[in-house]
Structures are given as C-alpha cells and as structure tokens.
Amino acid sequence: MSVWEILGLAPTADARAIKRAYAGLLKKVHPEDDPEGFQRLREAYGEALELAKTLKAEDTSVSNPGERLDSGASSEAAPGTVEQQGTEQQGSWQEQAESAAGMPSERGELPSWGEANRRMRHRRAESSDSQGSVDTAGGSSDAASRSTDSNHIDSNRVNSEAAKGKAVSRGAEMAQWMYQLRELYADYARRTQLEAWEQLLGQEQLRNLGFRQSIQSEVLFFLAEHPHLPQEVWQLLDRTFDWTGDELGLARRVPPEFAAFVLGSIRQAAALRFGYLPVHSGFDQDEFLSLRSTGAGLLRSGELREAVEQFDRAYEYFSRDPDLLRLRAAALHLLGEDWRAEEDWKLLVAHFPGERDALVHLADRMLETERASEALRLFQYALDLQPNDPQVLLGLARCYRELERYAEAQQICDLALLLEPSDIELRIRLLDLQSLQVQHLLDLLKRYPGDRDTRLAAGELLYEPGRDEECERVLTEAPLYGLTSEMKALLGQALLRLGREAEAAVRFDEAVAAAEAAGQNGFEARLQRGLYRVDCESWEDAERDLRAAAALATGDNARLWAGLAACLVGLERFGEALEPIERALRLRPCSVFYGTRAAVLHGLKRYEDAREDCERALAYRASNSMILTIKGRCELRTGRYEEAASSLERARDLAAGDAPQLLAALCELYLRQGQYREVLTETDAYTGMQSADDAAAELLLYRGWACRKLGLLAEAREAFVQARLLLPEDRRVMILALDEQFAGGTPAGELLAWAEQILLLDPEDRETLLRKLGLLTELGRLDEAKLTVEEWVAKSGECERYAPLDYYFGVLLLKRGDYEAAAVRLQQAYAAGLRGDVTSLLSIARFEIGETEEALCLAREAAMEYPAHPDYAARLKLMESRRGVPGMLRQLMRRDSRPTAWPFEAEPIPLRFHPRADDFPYDREGMPR
Amino acid sequence: MMTAYEYERALNWAAALGAPLLSQNGVQPPYTTASCRAANFDSAFILHALWNVTDAEGVYELAQRMWSGMHNPSFQEIRLALAGMTLDQRKKYVQSYREHERYEELYTVNLYMDRLPPAGIAAWDLGRLVFYLRCAGLEGYISEQEEAALLLHTAVRARYAYRSWTDYAVAYMAGRQFWAQDLSEEASEINYGILCSLLTGEQTPWRELEWDIDLPEPPELPE
User: CB contact, 8 Å: A719 with chain B?
Assistant: First the structure.
C-alpha cells in the first residue's frame, strides 16, 4: 500500500493537505489500540511530506507549476483534470495534441514524477547508509527494495501468522514479476518486441484481480522512470490494467501529470518508432530516446530552435533513425532553414526509400530550387507509393509546368482538383497554367490566324477566369476566317458578361443559325441561348431551346437541367420542374441550384423542404433577395411569423426596389398578424394603377381584405373591383369582387352578368349560383330563378341540405301562394340559422295557414332583431290587427278581387351573404361568413 | 533615396495587399483613398461592428493585433501539433476529429501546412488589415500620413513573409478557408472567383506591381 493510499490522498505537493489528512487519521488510529497501524501512519506521513517537497521542487523548475500542482491537490480535483485532458478535448490544439502524443505540456519533457521518485529513493538510500543498513545498488534494484519495503509494511498489518505468510508469498510473487519486467525493459531488443510483453503480461498470476491491483502501483512507479516503450506495448499494458477504462482510478494512484502521460502514451497520434536503433549494450538507447522525445515535445510547443538542439544531440548518438531525421527536418523547415532540412530529407530518401514524407518534402524543395527534373522523378516515385495523393499530384503538375509540359500539368491539376476540390492552391496553380497556355495559343494564332480551333480554345481559356474583353478580342480579331457556331455562342457569353445584352442576343441567334446551316449538333448554341433566355424570363423560348439542347446532349449537363427547371418554374409548371432540378443537383450540388429547387418546392407547397433548400442556398448567397423572399414565404406558410418577418425585411433591405412579390409576402404576413394598417400603407401605391402584373393584383386583394377587416367596406370593394380590372379573366379575383359587391348592396343589374361569367367558368360553383338566384329574385325574374333552382336540384339533389336554397324555394312558393309548402322550406332555412327575411317571410306563411300565434312570435322576433327594417314592423302590425280574422275568412280575403287588402306586402330582399372565405390566406384567420 | 513616384508605387503595392476585400467591396484598382470613397461602402459600420474601432487609438490597437496575428496563431499552433507526425499519421489524426466542431480547421491546416512558408496564413491577417486601414482613413480616424505609415509597416511584414503574389494569394485564401471553416467545393470556387481577376486581369495591381518592388523604410510609429 502506498503512502498516499494510507493517507487517503492523491499524490500531492500540498503539505497542508497531507497534514490535514494525517490529523484526521490520528483520531481514528490510537497508538495503544493499534501500535502497528499508528507506526505505519507516522511513516506514511513522513514519507508523504518528503515526497511533497520533491514534487514541489521539481515542479517549480518548469513553467506554470502552481496551477498544475494545485489541480492535483485534492482527490476530488485530480479526476476532473484527467478527464478533461483525456476525454473532453477542450483547450488548445497544442494541449490536445500533446495529450494525444503522450507528453505533458511542459516543453515536451518527460513527467517529473519518475525523477521525483528517483530523488526520493536517493535520499532514503543515503539515510539508510548513514544508519548502517545495506541497500542494493543500481537503478534496477530500486523497485525491488521498494517492493520489499511495501511487503514489510503489509506484513505488519496482519495479525495472524497465516495471513502474514500469505502476504509474504504475494510479496515474493510481485518481486519476482517485477524482476522480469525490469529484465525485459533492460534488454532493448526484447523491449521492442510485442511478443515478449505479451508473454510477461499473460502470466497466470496477472489473472488474479488482487495481484493485478497490487502490482499496478509498482508497474506505474517503474514506468515513470522507464517510459520509453513503443505505443503497442503501452496499449498492451492498458489492456492488462485498464487505465483508459478507469481514468479516475489511475489519477488517484499517480500524480495527474503522470496519469496524463500514461493515457497519452496509450493514445498517442504521433507514435515514434523504436525498431531502427542499435540494440547492443554499448548504445544508450534510453538517452537517445529521451532526447528524441524531448525534441518532439519542444517541436510541438513551438520551441523550434531548442528542438533542433535536442535532435542534434540525439543525432550525435545515432544518425540513422528515420523519425529523428524527419522530426529535425520538420523543425528546420518551420525555421525556414530548408537547406539544412534538405540534408535530412536526402539522408532519409537514400536510406529509407519507402519514407514517402521525405520524398515529397525533398521533391518540393528541389522544385523550389529549380531542379524540376529531379523533383519530377521523386514525385513520380511518391505517387507509386500512394497513388492519387493530391499533394503529390499538385507537385507533379508544378514540375510539368516548370518543364513547360502544360497539357500534362493541366490534366494532373484537373485530376487533383477532383480528388481535393477544396484545395484553393490547386485552383490558383491551374489559373497560372491557363495563363501560360493562353499565351502559347496566342503565339500560335499569330502564325496561324485561320486556325479556328485554336482561336476557340484561347477564347475559352480567357472566358473562364473572366477575361471577357480579351476573349471578345480574340474571337473577333480575324473576321476574315469567320466564326463557328461555338465561337459565336462563346462570344455571346462574353458580351453578356460585358453588359452588352442586345449584341449577345444577336450572337446567340447567329450561333443557332450557324449550327443549323452547317448541319452541326448545335448543342452549345442552343444551351447558351436557352440560358440567356432564362435570364430574360422568356420562358417558352428558353424551354424550347433547352429541350432541343437536351435532345442533342451527349452527356449530362447540370446547367442545362437547372435552366430547364427555372423555365418551368417561370411557367408555374412546378411538378415538371422537380425532376430536372434534382438531376442538376445530383450532378452538381450548389447553392444556385438549391435556390431553384426551393422555388420549385415552394410552388408545390412543400414549404418545409423549400425552406431547407433556401437555407442551403443562402449559405453562399446570403444577399440573394429572391431566395430570402421564398424563405420568408415558406416561413409564413408554416406559421413561423417572426422568422418570416426577419427574412422578408432582410430581403427588402437587399432588394433594389420593392418587388411586388416581396410586398405581397410582407402584406400576407401583416394580414396574418392583424397589422391591417400596414397593409394599407404598403399597398397605397397600387391603388389606381392601370397596368400591373399578377403580384400587383394580389396586393390589391390583400388591400381589400385589410379594408374589410378594418370595416372600410367601400375601400374593400374598390380594391377588389380594381384587382378584377387588372385580372379580368381570373376567376378568383372575379369571385372576390362579386362577393364584396353583392354583400355591399351593389344593384343586382350590375352583378348578374359577373355571376353568369363566373358560372360559365365553373358551373358547379354553388356559392355563385346562390348569388345569381338572389340577384334574379331581386330583379323579379322569378321564372328564371325557379328554373335555375329546379335545374340545380335536378342536377345535384342538394336542396335539402342547403339552407339558402331553401330560402329561395320558400320565396318562390310564397310568391305563388303555396303557403304550406313555403312554410316548410322557410322553416328549414330558419332551422339552419338564417334569420332576417327568412324569419319575417316564415311568419307570413305561418299566418296564412292559420298558425297565428307562431306567426306573431316570428314577426316579433324579426322586428326586434332588425327594428329599423320598415317591412318587418309593418308586417307585425298588420298581423296584430288581423289576428282575430279566422283562417277561413283570411282565405276569402285573399281572393284576386281584393288584391289590395290582402296578402301582406312580401317583397323579399334576397339574402346578401358575407363574402365567402378563400382558401388562402384567410383559412388561418377564420374570417366570419 | 526614393522618388515620389516610387513612394507612390510602394503605397499602391501596400494597398494591393488588401485587394481581395477591397474589390469585394466594389473598390477599383489602384485602391486609392479616392477610389475607396467612390465605392461608397459603409466603412464606419465595418470598423465599429467588426472591431469596435471608432478612433485612432482603436486603429493602432487593431494594427498591432493583426501584426501579431489574429487567426495565424491558431493556425500555427495546429501546424506545430501536426508537424511531428508523418503524413499518414496526420491524415489519420485529422480523420479522427471528423465529428469535432473544429475538424475543418484541422483539415485546412493539414492541407496547406507543408506548402506555406513559416509565416503561415499571416497574409489573411495582413490583407484584412490593409482594408481596415483604408476604412479608418476614409472615416478620418487616422491622418493620411498615419495611414501611409501603417500601410508600409504592413507591407514590409507581408513582403518578407512571402515570395510572390501567388504565394500571398494562396496563404490569404488558406487563411480565409481556415477562418470560414468551410471546405465545400462551392466555397472554394467563390474564393477562387475573388482571386481570379486579381491574378489574371490585364490591369490589376497584382500583375502590374512586381512582388519585389522597392519598399521604403517605414516611419516609426508613435508609442
């Protein structure tokens, strides 16, 4: 049991913590009751204080020591520290990399704990010597003596002889095993063999949990002083003792710094090799490994000069270690001393031909020092070792460039770019190559001005990086030799980018005509003209061109499919647009195409999907007002009003002017949020507008709805009627205008033709049919009304279920004098909730068939509900004055010979319904009917 | 002794370091104060919103920070962490961070670390600083002389860190990728688009002003 375990502490340099722990334990262990335990505790206390001094002295010699020791001052703090280092991956990359590399962060040195132990033992040995005791000499026996000490303590703890014997036996076993461990470590050839370690760690006694736990502290203690092991061995040790599985346990056994070292050694990402060192006893492998390891740590911490010093010292010991050469070259390269690094790379390449890193670095160095041929050979060899390595391909391309083998350079750059599309240097080098190629082609053109293929190739190379003026010049400078269809198409593209649209349009037309005249494929000409027409929003023409290009295409072309999809969006054929845009995205996922698909999905009312695509598109086109508008509309339709407001406001900020589509979306948002006044403000400019597009009409509709909500019925009517003027053929607009005017009391004569026009477009529109019935009734054209009702009933058989129709039926029957039948119909309308005329006319029908009391009740109800209505009051009055007339007499009084006395004045006003609700956007608002 | 013409050229050279950002903001070469003013971008907003700079003191502080390195230290830190590894170890190590939020940074460093000079992505910090210095000049936070001095100090640093405009461009864009943490092909194309005309245009400062131009000794800066 270690002193720390006896004291119940994590190893610490904090003397106060040790004293506190000791004082606490003294209360529990009385010298009279447990003299051995008391002795053991005192010894542990003394040792711990001494060890703490050593740790503190050691730690003050490295940077920032206080924090590190403090962090391990209590048993609670230590696990957290280790866990953070081992699992959370927080902090700087250097810390993480050092942790992964198995090094504490103090300048890459090995952990101080091992050294502290060495000093501690040294002091104890001196003390023993002074007392005349005999100690074994040499480092390898230290652990044995410790083990013996430990056994001594353990043996004191047991009282029975049997237990004592058992402990001694365990101690002997441990000593034996530790001896084997030391022997294995001491023999360098065996130390680097995994099999030897497997044999040692596979021994029977290590399967015993108790033995494993007991020996673990000894092993850790040993490793602190003898840490130079290959990573595989560290990992094998971990499989035996499970340090990575119990990091807290490890942190309790050893100082946190050493725990981190152990975990890092197991997980290290930059493992160094051990297999190249001389194994004979005359070579101090540990000294070499210590220097190499320290140098690597210094390299990681950026102390390059110091790192090189360590590497130089290690090099003096042994100069053929590939990792040493590689590390030194890396440090020298970072110092900008490539001339020195080159020597190491050369040594590596000469002695270790499979070291790909050295090949690449040396080749790079040669390329930069104008030795392209040698570099080419090295790069080719490196490529053999790992085909398709983009870095090597780039180097190869640069070699070809230097050797003026431009075509090969370009091919290789293209390939590398396919493998590593995010490599900006590749693109820049490619650009460089293209410039050289252009120059080469221009030189050729000076000699052969009639070579149209060369001219086209030069034009293409100039067009690609945006050298449009030069592209135009090259294509047009030799008119004598004429232009092919492809050259004309390219010229059109260049002119377009130069802002000369009209000329570009002519060139595109010429390109198509030239291809047709020459009986050529004409794909490029059709494609470019089609794309140009998409930009001009000439959707039908663009579609024709692009479909023709698609038929002529020999392979898939993302721009073609995206252009076609854009056409179909423009033509509002969203269902058809989905397939081509998805095809384009499969070929080339980019933000522009995502934007187009967003428009398609929005048109298909797949708002969530559309919104996602908008997000993708905006990742690279955050300032695209159109995409922001679509996004805003999607958010609007999915009830995310705040986000919609943000998107639309941003779109508005970015747009050059207020596009009607954008305003329409904003107005819809305002309507949904009940901000009706804002709608009026936004749409003010559109009132009285003579010619405008669909979006303008939409805005007027929103204005109408806002006015209606605000009770400004005359203004609402005006807005709807104006919208109808803008879109005279639009059924939805016609309906809105008709409904508003119908409800608002516009004379029937003006509205009947509208209603009939709507019914021509949709004969099944029963809401409009009802309004037509009302209008006919109001106009006194009862026969037509009757005919209409009968046709409807015959056609749909729906009258029983439709209250307004019952009303009209009732009115017709009342006019005909069939009171009983009229009462039935009107009663049905009344039961369905219709009031006003329905109530009053029902009272007349009831009165006429002798149901006087019921009739009076209904008449009173109508008069009370609408006290200002002159007819209702008059009817009630008449009924009350004639309630005494018997039923039979009433029938006599109704004869034709006495028309003025009887019947009641029953000129019904047709029901003026509220405007019907539209599906959009008011479905959420629940507009009252 | 440098002639007025040479001095002017040196200042234009220094301003050309900020060409990517300047041209993105609509400034035409040779990126003089007048052409910056003509581009009419919101320089006060840029300085205030991004750096909280509203006066000369803030400008000097910003310059010091940029010269010390804003993103470059992080880049170099990762570079050092990877420097001791073999190419295969680096690749494996970077891949092990695939799900980590800073994977893109690690990937970018691994991609460029062998190709960049010891100065790393200092071009990214210096190039941006030139743009901000122009902004500060436009807003009158610093005088014309102060702006010239700060530009020349920046120029000298860039000049000794890189060997050509192409090297500078690569380092600048590597820095931009490192900052943006975006490795997509499209982002790379956009970055490439920014550089394209600067590197190939007929009349761009990067083609007109050779990298090895004579630079004057920068005047001493106030304490």
Answer: no
Which residue, among A747, A753, A693, A686, has the nearest Cα to A718 in the 3D structure?
A: A686
Taking each helix axis as running N to C, give the angle between helix A803-816 and helix A819-831, from 0 to 180 degrees, rounded to the nearest 10.
Answer: 160
**Distance, CA of A294 to CA of A123 (rounded, Å):** 27
* Residue where the block lists tokens 């360098």: A188
Per-residue burial over A586-603, b = 16 or more CB atoms within 10 Å of its CB, e = otherwise: ebbebbbbbbbbbbbbbb
**Cβ-defined contact of A100 to B93 (cutoff 8 Å):** yes
The whole-number pLDDT of residue A388 equals: 85
CA atoms within 13 A on the CB side of B146: 18
CB B47 within 8 A of CB B53: yes
Residue B88 belongs to a domain: no
Q: What tokens were used for A544?
A: 């024709």
pTM: 0.67
Q: Which of the residue ranges A171-185, A693-707, B70-84 would you say has the lowest mean pLDDT?
A: A693-707
CB A885 within 8 A of CB A901: no
Closest Cβ opposite residue B188 in set A330, A360, A424: A424
Q: Which two tokens stand for residue A175?
A: 């000593």
Q: Does A100 touch chain B (CB under 8 A)?
A: yes
Task: List the structure tokens of B19.
Answer: 């060409």
How close, in Å, is residue A369 to chain B by CA atoms? 13
DSSP H helices, A710-818, are: 713-726, 731-744, 748-761, 766-778, 782-796, 803-816
CB contact B106 to A (< 8 Å): yes
Q: How far apart are CA A29 and CA A559, in angstroms?
A: 86
Task: List A residues 582-641 in contact with B (Cβ-Cβ < 8 A).
Answer: 590-591, 620
The two tokens of residue A498 are: 């130069």
Give mean pLDDT, residues A321-348. 94
Residue A810's identity, in one-letter code, is G
> What are the start-end ranges of the H helices in A536-659?
539-552, 558-570, 574-587, 591-603, 607-620, 625-637, 641-654
Per-position DSSP letters for chain B, written without gaps between them: ---HHHHHHHHHHHHHTTHHHHHHTTPPTT--HHHHHHHT--HHHHHHHHH---SHHHHHHHHHHHHH-SSHHHHHHHHHHHHTS-HHHHHHHHHHTTTSTTHHHHHHHHHHTTTS-TTTTHHHHHHHHHHHHHHHHHHTSS-HHHHHHHHHHHHHHHHHH-SSHHHHHHHHHHHHHHHHT---HHHHHHHHHHHHHHHH-TT-HHHHS-TT---PPPPPPP-
> How many domains in chain B?
1
> What is this model's ipTM?
0.88
Tell whether B91 is covered by a domain.
no
Stated length of chain B: 223
> Which of A594-598, A647-651, A859-863, B195-199 bottoms out in mean pLDDT, i.e. has the lowest?
B195-199
Residue B71 CA to residue B174 CA, distance in Å, equals 11
Q: Which residues have a Cβ under 8 Å from the Cβ of A747 and sit 6 or more positions away?
A: none
A438 pLDDT above the threshold of 70: yes
Question: Is the Cβ–Cβ distance between A94 and A108 less than 8 Å?
Answer: no
Tell me, yes or no, whether B75 lies in a domain.
no
Is residue B130 assigned to a domain?
Answer: yes
DSSP letter at A902 equals S
Task: Give the CA count within 13 Å in the CB-facing half-sphere of A746.
Answer: 20
What does the CA dihedral A717, A721, A726, A730 come to, rounded to 10 degrees? 100
Asked if A618 contacts A624 with a C-beta cutoff of 8 angstroms, the reply is: yes
Query: How far from A27 is each of A17, A22, A38, A292, CA to CA, in Å?
Result: 16, 9, 11, 50
Domain that holds residue B159: 4-70+121-208
Q: Tokens 């074994």 belong to which residue?
A: A136
3-state secondary structure of A675: coil
Q: How would you label A394-424 residue by residue, b for 16+ Cβ within 10 Å and e otherwise?
A: bbbbbbbbbeebbeebbebbebbbeebbbbb
Q: Is the pLDDT of residue A550 over 80?
A: yes
